[in-house]
From TrEMBL:
UniProt entry keywords in alphabetical sequence: Ligase
Name of the protein described by the UniProt record: Amino acid--[acyl-carrier-protein] ligase
Gene3D superfamilies found in the cross-reference section: Bira Bifunctional Protein, Domain 2
Protein EC: 6.2.1.n2
Database matches in PROSITE patterns: AA_TRNA_LIGASE_II
UniProt organism field: Phenylobacterium deserti
Keyword Ligase: yes
InterPro entries in the record: aa-tRNA-synth_II, aa-tRNA-synth_II/BPL/LPL
């Protein structure tokens, strides 16, 4: 195939992804969605016996929660908020006139109390804090949500709206670090069973600004963020899973406490569902019915 034909071109031509006219915003076919359903079922089989509490939030959180989380200090370039028309009849007439003139009608909108969720676990921490101290042994959660990050790109693995499945552990430092290590080992077995090449590497979040440069260095030096990278669409492998140790950050941000009143530590393992699906299509072909038998057995049984 012509080298100029990208993975995105192939996915679009096959009807697996559907263009909307905005980079990073795509429709998905039933075949694409079935791959995600099958992979999520695999995740549930691997983690199901742990007894996680299943929580599903909408793909939005309160603007106050986003502000309190510190997200705007670290990642303002990625954040999204919901705006809406809040005027009366006269304001509506102005809006319609602006539309007729081809003007910017969004200037007639105001910010609401809703922000788009940047990571599936973000609405979880204020909920956990509001429910009081953790029980002895801590808590474990299974969360999944569509997430938004404003980074338009022609790379299909860098969507603006995408889904994350996460297991989140809250407890002592020892408990959450053991949880993270256990999931690194599990993830390596899972991805190897799908015949996907991978590597687990130190990483950092895309912190913004001058202070962010120091935060990136600290995050890498302390090994707080590890990623499982898989070749997807570009020469450089793409982060498809992440293993994050937050230390007691959310204890100080939200007041998540241990049973004895001390600050709780948290950790999460995150699966980028669209990225995993894209990796499977890239390495095994665009027709799942023709994928290797061992991969189909893992996903379809």
């Amino acid at each position: 195939m012509d080298a100029s034909v990208t993975l995105l071109d192939q996915l679009i031509a096959e009807g697996l992804l559907i263009r909307t006219g905005v980079e990073g915003l795509y429709g998905r076919s039933g075949v694409f969605e079935d791959v995600i359903v099958r992979f999520e079922a695999l995740v549930s089989r691997v983690g199901g016996a742990d007894g996680a509490e299943v929580i599903r939030f909408p793909p939005a959180m309160t603007r106050r929660q986003l502000e309190t989380s510190g997200y705007m200090k670290s990642f303002p370039q990625l954040a999204g908020t919901v705006h809406s028309f809040c005027g009366g009849d006269h304001d509506h007439m102005d809006l319609l006139a602006t539309l007729d003139e081809g003007g910017d009608w969004t200037q007639k909108q105001e910010a609401t109390d809703i922000a788009l969720t940047p990571a599936a676990c973000y609405p979880l921490y204020p909920m956990v804090a509001a429910q009081g101290p953790l029980p002895p042994g801590g808590r474990l959660f299974d969360v999944q949500s569509y997430c938004f990050r404003h980074e338009p790109s022609a790379d299909p693995a860098r969507m603006q709206l995408f889904r994350m499945r996460e297991y989140v552990r809250a407890g002592t430092a020892e408990e959450v670090q053991a949880f993270r290590q256990r999931w690194i080992e599990r993830a390596e077995e899972m991805i190897a069973s799908l015949d996907l090449p991978y590597e687990v590497v130190p990483a950092n979040d895309p912190f913004f600004g001058r202070a962010g440069r120091m935060m990136k260095v600290n995050q890498r030096e302390q090994g707080l963020k590890l990623e499982m990278v898989i070749p997807v669409a570009n020469a450089q492998p793409t982060a498809c899973l992440s293993f994050n140790y937050h230390q007691d950050h959310f204890a100080h941000t939200w007041g998540v406490r241990l049973a004895d009143g001390g600050p709780a530590h948290t950790s999460c393992v995150g699966f980028g569902l669209e990225r995993i699906a894209l990796a499977l299509f890239r390495h095994h072909g665009l027709d799942p019915a023709a994928w290797p038998d061992n991969v189909r057995r893992v996903l379809w049984g």
